[in-house]
């Protein structure tokens, strides 16, 4: 299948113009052998490349490019499919933007079009190319250090001490995972995650129950979440709990129950954040809105969990404004390498900034993911890079240190 792939990257420090010319010559031969067209733009610091050809050829060429240390911070911008070749014949051409007029580069690319009819100004690939030439997106080309520049050191002082942990008897129903601000080295919140007796996920606990039984268990389990958190000592931090949106709607007096249990454990409502998954809200938005008003009137905050994973996200923000949103781990995974994911994160941040909603990135596993998100302006993170959920205790956080 005919594939068009676009990426951009940063040139490595030790690459000279001479190496660049040799590189283009070699790439031209390799591309030709794969029947791939390559158009490479260079602005003195960044590369932008278009590859077009049979899917297998484009993938093979791109894999080699990804492994090449003459550049770094590769971001895949687009991968699209078309009925016919649009960008000329196999080989490789370099345009050094410092030596060409903007217009002449675009014209040269248009002139190479194999079919003028198909290569219109509305073509996405051509628009990407034009945006790079115009440098209008340059502010979003974030420099991310390679992972080996960082070391994640577990905070020994934060390790749970046997003596000061007085656990409730029996099965530890909840595991705790910190939400952290690595720049200020602060644990800003702790999330309580339900565990089945065998350590499995919350969903196992609900398996086989009727919907009503599920909602009741979901709500009543929170008595233990508060008791465990209080005995572990969460001090000035907020405590995040997960609830099915319908738990708040279908269990009569749900909010009053939460308030009673918060008070019984010497916590305050302002310390508690309820996390709900956006997708589960859709079917009964109106009833849910009513429950949210009750929560907010009692001083409890609301977070939308797994934001961006479902279809309710943006519409939901027009109906209820949460205090926080947590960007789904599927969007976070390899965000430093994906143009679409970067565009989505930046759009979510812009939207949340306009609405003064705090943003957390969840499921962060790689140093590069964290670094890209930090440069993009996110301050709160959750994920195994910093701390995995710990059954019955608040785990120590691994903080990043520059080597
Ligand atoms: P969630 O609140 O979005 O939690 C994220 C899940 O990802 C958690 O699984 C967590 O252990 C896991 N996780 C944390 N860091 C990472 C990471 O860096 N990488 C990856 N791949 N995964 C990570 P868990 O604890 O099994 O929870 C799954 C879901 O179950 C939760 O998603 C939450 O929506 C739900 N849940 C947890 N506790 C409760 C509860 O008390 N009530 C209800 N209704 N749902 C709950
Ligand atoms: Mn959650
Ligand atoms: Mn989540």
TrEMBL record:
Domain named BLUF: residues = 2-93
List the molecular function annotations (GO) for this entry. Answer: blue light photoreceptor activity; cyclic-guanylate-specific phosphodiesterase activity; FAD binding
- Please state what the protein is called: Diguanylate phosphodiesterase
Output the superkingdom of the source species: Bacteria
Pfam family example for this protein? BLUF
Native species: Siccibacter turicensis
Q: Where is the EAL domain positioned along the sequence?
A: 156-403
Against InterPro entries, the record matches this protein to: Acylphosphatase-like_dom_sf, BLUF_domain, Cyclic-di-GMP_PDE-like, EAL_dom, EAL_sf
């Amino acid at each position: 299948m005919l594939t068009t792939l676009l990426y951009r990257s940063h040139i490595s420090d030790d690459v000279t113009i001479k190496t660049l010319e040799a590189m283009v010559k070699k790439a031209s031969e390799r591309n030709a052998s794969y029947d791939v067209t390559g158009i490479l733009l260079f602005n003195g610091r960044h590369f932008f490349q278009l590859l077009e050809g049979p899917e297998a050829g484009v993938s093979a060429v791109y894999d080699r490019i990804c492994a090449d240390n003459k550049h770094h911070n590769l971001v895949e911008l687009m991968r699209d499919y078309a009925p016919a070749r649009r960008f000329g014949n196999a080989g490789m051409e370099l345009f050094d933007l410092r030596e060409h007029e903007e217009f002449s580069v675009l014209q040269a690319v248009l002139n190479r079009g194999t079919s003028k009819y198909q290569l219109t100004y509305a073509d996405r690939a051509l628009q990407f190319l034009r945006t790079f030439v115009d440098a209008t997106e340059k502010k979003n080309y974030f420099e991310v250090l390679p992972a080996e520049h960082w070391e994640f050191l577990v905070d020994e002082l934060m390790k749970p001490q046997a003596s000061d942990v007085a656990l409730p008897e029996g099965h530890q129903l909840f595991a705790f995972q910190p939400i952290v601000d690595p720049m200020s080295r602060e644990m800003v919140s702790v999330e309580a995650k339900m565990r089945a007796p065998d350590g499995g996920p919350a969903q196992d606990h609900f398996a086989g129950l009727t919907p009503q039984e599920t909602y009741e268990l979901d709500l009543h389990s929170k008595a233990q979440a508060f008791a465990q958190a209080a005995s572990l000592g969460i001090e000035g931090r907020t405590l995040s709990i997960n609830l099915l949106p319908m738990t708040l709607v279908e269990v009569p007096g749900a909010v009053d129950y939460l308030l009673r249990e918060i008070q019984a454990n010497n916590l305050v409502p302002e310390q508690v954040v309820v996390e709900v998954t956006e997708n589960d809200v859709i079917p009964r938005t109106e009833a849910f809105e009513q429950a949210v008003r009750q929560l907010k009137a009692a001083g409890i905050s609301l977070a939308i969990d797994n934001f961006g994973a479902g279809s309710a996200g943006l519409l939901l923000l027009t109906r209820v404004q949460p205090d926080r949103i947590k960007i789904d781990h599927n969007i976070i995974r390899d965000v430093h390498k994906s143009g679409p994911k970067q565009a989505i994160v930046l759009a979510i941040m812009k939207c949340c900034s306009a609405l003064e909603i705090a943003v957390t990135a969840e499921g962060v596993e790689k140093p590069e993911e964290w670094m890209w998100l930090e440069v993009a302006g996110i301050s709160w993170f959750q994920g195994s890079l910093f701390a995995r959920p710990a059954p019955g205790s608040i785990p120590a956080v691994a903080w990043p240190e520059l080597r």
